[in-house]
Each structure stands twice: as structure tokens, then as C-alpha cells.
Amino acid sequence: MDAKYKRVMIKLSGEALAGEQEFGIDPATVQQISESVKEVYVHDVEISVVVGGGNFWRGRQGFGMDKSTADYMGMLSTVLNALALQDALEQMGVPVRVQTAIEMKEIAEPYIKRKAMRHLEKRRVVIFAAGTGNPFFTTDTTAALRAAEIDADIILLAKNVDAVYDSDPAINPNAQKFDHLSYLDVINKGLKVMDSTAITLCMDNDIPILVFGLDNPDNILRAVNGEQIGTLIEGGN
Ligand code: GTP
């Protein structure tokens, strides 16, 4: 089976790692996600990953805090998740390199684009941690930025819903599901897929985004094979 996409950016939310417990790291869930990543890895796909940190801390939780400080706390929480994923993948025999946007050399490599590219070429999964290293930017924007830098074919945006809808399907049973959207559709319709900084970065750099659910563990592989799942965001109007 030949994968449609050869180099992918997988964006995982921090919450995805928490499983049912909704906080912290659920080892069984991390194991399951890592197995899904491995399934793609063995199909000769070059894999990069950006993981959020919302299972530990969200920048907007910092009520009354200095926004930058709250965001730095969020960046640190992504490092915890990156290390957990690295460990789980390596235990399955998948080589992984973690690179952090804020230097913490005792823990992981600093982010160096050329080194990241070399790791990918050498068949290592690269996990980008600590966001962009800047406050006021989300991990979705990190995924868009790193995808542009490493020339990824697509961003696989794994969510806890199976696609993009015109309203919340958990609240509105008549919510309409979109199979395909343009970047401008997402912005103009105010759809809460990614923040606008991330979407415009993808638009300006022609990086398609596939939004899909992690409910089915095979979905990452199906996405990489170009199966029609979730919502594909690309192109103009
Ligand atoms: P090649 O240069 O392609 O051989 O890549 P490599 O990652 O195998 O070699 P390198 O000697 O750069 O790294 C060996 C190990 O040390 C890998 O697990 C790296 O992730 C890790 N490593 C490299 N640089 C750093 C760093 O600055 N800090 C930490 N903590 N680990 C590092």
C-alpha cells in the first residue's frame, strides 16, 4: 500500500493524551496513539508531531496572570507530552527525536530545522515541543509553522470530533458536516478548527489540513493513504 502523503505533520491535542481522565497522561491512551503512529511509520512515511499541552495547562487558565507567563507554562506542558510520546514510541522500536523551541539541552535537542530534516530523512519521528517558543502563539500555529519549515505535505489535525461541523454536533443533532472547506471558508464562517494565525499560515503556504477524529485508531493511517475521512481544508474559494 503506497501512502498518498510522504511527509506529514501530525497535530495532537494535549487532551488526546489524557484519555477518559481528562487531565495528565493516560499511559494506555499514549500507547494506543503511539501504535497508530507506528502503523504509519512502517508504511515509510516521514512523521513529525506537534502535541499541545492542554491536559496539564492552558494559557487561558492563567486568570489574572501575565499572558506571557501563562503561555510559557503551556509551552512547558507540551514538553511533558512530547517526552511521554517519545518514550512510548521508542519502546515500540520507533526512533524518535524531540526538539524544543526553548532550549533545555539536558532534556532534548534544541529546534534546528536542518537537523529536523536530517532526522526525517533518516526515518526518525521528530516531535516538536515547547510550541514556537513564543507566547501568544498556539500549538496549532506551531504545527503550521513547522509544517511549512520542513515542507510537510499535509497537517493531520487529530481532534475529539470526527470532522468540522457548522455547529457543535454534541449540542446540535442537525449540525452539518463539511467534507471539504477552503481556508477562507474556515475564517469567514468563524469555524473553530484552528486559530486564525494558524489557518492563514497554512493558506499562505498552501499546506492542506485534514481534520479527523482519533476515535478510530486506524484513522491516521487512513488519512495518510488519502481515504476520504473527516474534513479536508485546502485551496481557494
Ligand atoms: P545523526 O547526526 O543523524 O547521527 O543524528 P543523531 O540524533 O543520532 O545524533 P546526535 O549525535 O546528534 O544525537 C545522539 C542522541 O543525543 C540523540 O538521541 C539526540 O536526540 C540526542 N541529542 C542530540 N543533541 C542533544 C541536545 O542538545 N540535548 C539533548 N538532551 N540530547 C541531544
UniProtKB/TrEMBL annotation:
User: GO MF terms on file?
Assistant: ATP binding; UMP kinase activity
Q: Which GO terms describe its cellular component?
A: cytoplasm
The EC number on file is: 2.7.4.22
Main localization is cytoplasm
Pathway note: Pyrimidine metabolism; CTP biosynthesis via de novo pathway; UDP from UMP (UMPK route): step 1/1
Q: Which GO terms describe its biological process?
A: 'de novo' CTP biosynthetic process; UDP biosynthetic process
Catalytic reactions on record: UMP + ATP = UDP + ADP
Which amino acid positions bind ATP, per UniProt?
A: 11-14, 54, 58, 160, 165, 168
Recorded hits in Gene3D superfamilies, A to Z, give: Acetylglutamate kinase-like
> What are the protein's UniProt keywords?
ATP-binding, Cytoplasm, Kinase, Nucleotide-binding, Pyrimidine biosynthesis, Transferase
Q: Does the keyword Signal apply?
A: no
NCBIfam families referenced in this protein's UniProt entry, alphabetically:
pyrH_bact
- What is annotated about its quaternary structure and interactions? Homohexamer.
What name does UniProt use for this protein? Uridylate kinase
Organism of origin: Pseudoramibacter alactolyticus ATCC 23263
Gene this protein is translated from = pyrH
